[in-house]
Amino acid sequence: MPENQEKKNEVIKEFGQIELKNNRENNKVSLLSIIGEIEGHDCLPATTKTTKYEHILPKLAEIEDNQDSEGVLLLLNTVGGDVESGLAIAEMVASISKPTVSLVLGGSHSIGVPLAVSTDYSFIVPSGTMVIHPVRMNGMVIGAQPTYDYFKQMQDRILHFIAKHSNAQEERLEKLMMNTGMLTKDLGTILVGEQAVKEGLIDEVGGIHQAFLKLHSMIDAQKVKKK
What we know:
The protein has helices at residues 2-15, 53-65, 83-94, 112-117, 145-164, 170-177, 194-198, 208-226, and strands spanning 17-20, 29-39, 50-52, 71-81, 100-108, 121-124, 129-132, 189-192, 204-205. By secondary structure, it is α/β, with parallel strands linked by helices. Strands 1, 2, 3, 4, 5, 6 and 9 form a seven-stranded mixed beta sheet that branches. Strands 7-8 form a two-stranded antiparallel sheet. The chain is globular and about 50 Å long. 35% of the residues are buried. The model is unreliable at 7-13 and 138-142 (pLDDT under 50).
């Protein structure tokens, strides 16, 4: 037993993942956390707190194919990160056939926005924040038309995904993304708690208790449907 607990603690420490089974509803829930910066094809410094997409994607595949997994709770506190990798995770979460719920804690910024809305239902704590801004690239960017076309295409993909998986309108999202009056020397909009709900991005303001209640009710409803 101590050895199993040690392995469980190691998985939580390394990957931010845990299987929750001993609950009063007797449902088997997979908990995943997206924290820090989403690391993609390039390795970030060891001092940077990251979520590696090569850890998350196999876990999501396992959850989908594992008959013991009945639902997913996604905890988010991320500054964003690699756009392609973040969008890949969001697409995979959105395609899972089992009930999924997300909870935005400290924040879910940039590519964290598609991740937050990728689940069947979403929550944000009252002090949680979401930052919507245009696609950026660090380092030198060639100032040619194909470069701008690529950025526009990427932004359109992100906006379309968010609009498809939330109650927000694509035109409104683009206005929030290109807002010049909020972020100093930058474009974008910061939404706090209830504001994210009013804009249609998030379904409800709530915390871990509400997130679990919702997920268990969705799992129970799916069980009834299968019967």
